[in-house]
Write a structure and sequence with these properties.
The complex is a heterodimer. By secondary structure, chain A is an all-alpha fold. Chain A has helices at residues 6-20, 24-43, 48-65, 75-93, 113-130, 134-145, 150-157, 161-183. In chain A, α1 (6-20) crosses α2 (24-43) and α2 crosses α4 (75-93). The longest helix of chain A is centred in the last third of the chain and has 23 residues, at 161-183. The N and C termini of chain A lie far apart (41 Å). In chain B, a hairpin with a 2-residue loop joins β2 (99-100) and β3. Chain B has helices at residues 4-8, 15-24, 45-51, 60-78, 246-257, 262-275, 281-288, 296-306, 315-319, 323-332, 339-344; strands at residues 88-95, 99-100, 103-104, 112-115, 119-122, 127-132, 136-140, 144-152, 155-169, 176-179, 184-196, 202-215, 218-223, 226-231, 235-236, 240-241.
Chain lengths: 184, 356
């Protein structure tokens, strides 16, 4: 497990304890710390348009179950497990939904062609990452999409620096290969 | 090490990783935290299990009676108008299969609830309504995403992330607010339609009453029969009547949203003033505080010609943007009492809209 600086670790544990005792403001601060992690884990598993709603579901579920968490320092790993379970539930219950929107009808600026191309490119890269083995998918989403550093990923997920670093490097190597194949 | 940039962003940047970061940044988490402190008490899962455990079995009958009585009281109270804010809006399906989270609202599942932090999603074939007895009814068109942000007494706040809603609000003015990516709509007692497209641009059309539209101090008042557009990063444009001439609307749109030089803006203003009719005083009044100092006398003169100012208003005061005189002139135009806006808008802190 990752060892945090003592002051950060204490503050984190006291936030979790306060949230467990019903302090909703403390829970809101935990949301601020962990929302990117939850978002990235979900993005590695479910369609992007569903992710924002599921993030809310994850935190509501965590709020209901928080009393059962005995070790405050394991909050990140525990939240990660809830997130993965909810993502799995999604596939058991989900209904496919198209996400297109009609443009505003007055003569407003429309999304340009270059933006559309960038969006398509982003979709394609995301699809390649989502096709990677699970152990690489999550750290790459957290690093490349959510902008978290390796040490942050380790701190939030409860993994060691070593394993996060290895998975990031191997995942990135594999991603380069796959993107090379795609563009070839 | 050569992977330092990948690890913690230090060391020599890797152009390929930077490119990936830039491309994928659009998917980054950007939702504000739900108002957890406003959520109703959430009963822990363990407590709910304990309720059904065998050691409670003897009391089960008594509890069941109490629950039935409570349910009966709830149903009776629910059927009457109440001053208390409920925790959720009622969601009803109009067409297709709208969803709250991944829970489908359909014929068989019956009506649903929209709680704080939850999002109502309609696909291309779905429509739904959300209703709160003491506030109003909002019809949600296909391809929309509507989130409930807060729901306290006297403070109902939704966020229209994209799509179209038709709101009929009977709550007191200033109590119902809708965030969009490019402006905040504050209800001042009205019926209106609000659209947001995928770029975050919006359009508000008022059918009855009036609506305040604002972003970072940039405000527009949209009375019945008027339209106002918004753009991400710019905020609400100048409102205009639906029957304004095409040249008037075109010049106004360019004046509000196009990147123009001072000379071009003056030329566009010339078209607007020349095309302005009696009803367009709505637009001219808004322009008083949006044009440059050298252009303001022209707007004053045209507005004064179409709608002479009340006695308390002086040319000098308006050219100096005296707020009490601007308000007095607005009130004389017959679109609504600006006191409502001045009283209620400060109650709502602005959420800086975020657009990818």
């Amino acid at each position: 497990m990752t060892v945090w600086p003592v002051t950060e670790s204490r503050e984190h544990d006291s936030l979790v304890s306060a949230a467990r005792d019903g302090d909703r403001v403390a829970f809101g601060r935990l949301y601020a710390r962990y929302a990117r992690m939850v978002h990235g884990i979900l993005l590695a598993r479910v369609p992007p348009p569903e992710v924002d709603d599921l993030v809310q579901e994850v935190f509501l579920s965590a709020l209901r179950q928080l009393h059962a968490l005995r070790d405050s320092s394991r909050f990140g790993a525990w939240l990660g497990t809830i997130t993965r379970n909810l993502a799995n539930d999604y596939f058991r219950k989900a209904i496919p939904v198209s996400k297109l929107t009609e443009p505003v009808t007055e003569n407003h600026a429309k999304t340009g062609a270059s933006d559309h191309a960038a969006e398509q490119e982003a979709k394609a890269i995301l699809a390649v990452i989502r096709a990677l083995p699970e152990s690489y998918r999550e750290p790459l989403m957290l690093r490349l999409v959510e902008g978290m550093t390796g040490p942050e990923i380790a701190a939030r997920t409860g993994l060691t620096h070593g394993s996060v670093r290895v998975n990031l490097c191997r995942g990135m190597q594999l991603l380069r290969e796959k993107l090379g194949e795609t563009s070839a | 090490m050569k992977d330092d940039y990948l690890w913690d962003g230090s060391g020599e940047p890797d152009p390929e990783i930077q490119k990936l970061e830039a491309a994928l940044g659009r998917y980054r988490h950007n939702q504000p935290a739900p108002a957890f402190d406003r959520l109703r008490e959430i009963r822990p899962v363990e407590q709910r299990r304990a309720f059904f455990s065998l050691r409670w079995l003897p009391q089960l009958g008594a509890v069941a009676v109490i629950v039935l009585l409570a349910a009966a009281v709830f149903l009776v109270l629910r059927s009457r108008p109440s001053g208390n804010a409920g925790p959720s809006w009622d969601v009803a399906r109009l067409e297709g299969t709208p969803r709250v989270g991944w829970h489908a609202i359909g014929d068989k599942s019956g009506p649903g609830k929209l709680g704080i932090g939850q999002t109502l999603v309609t696909d291309n074939f779905s429509r739904a309504t959300i209703t709160l007895d003491e506030t109003g009814r909002v019809e949600v068109d296909p391809s929309s995403r509507l989130r409930l942000v807060t729901n306290g007494p006297g403070r109902k706040r939704l966020s229209l992330e994209r799509g179209t809603i038709h709101a009929t609000i009977w709550a007191p003015p200033g109590e119902f607010v809708v965030d969009t990516p490019s402006a905040v709509a504050v209800d001042l007692g009205c019926v209106y339609t609000l659209q947001v497209d995928d770029s975050g641009a919006g359009l508000l059309r008022t059918t009855m009453g009036w609506v305040g539209f604002k972003l970072k101090g940039h405000e527009s008042f949209i009375p019945a029969g008027a339209i106002c557009q918004t753009r991400p990063g710019i905020g609400p444009g100048t409102p205009y009547l639906e029957d304004a001439s095409a040249s008037f609307r075109d010049a106004l749109s360019k004046f509000d949203f196009s990147s123009t030089t001072a000379a071009e803006r003056t030329a566009l203003l010339g078209v607007i003033l020349a095309d302005a009719r009696k009803g367009d005083v709505l637009t001219l009044w808004h322009l008083l505080s949006r044009v440059s100092d050298p252009d303001r006398p022209g707007v004053y003169d045209r507005l004064a010609a179409l709608a002479p100012p009340p006695a308390v208003v002086t040319r000098q005061g308006i050219l100096g943007l005296d707020r009490s005189m601007l308000d007095a002139w607005w009130n004389s135009l017959g679109f609504g009492d600006i006191y409502l806006w001045r009283t209620y808008e400060h109650n709502w802190s602005q959420r800086p809209p975020k657009v990818n």
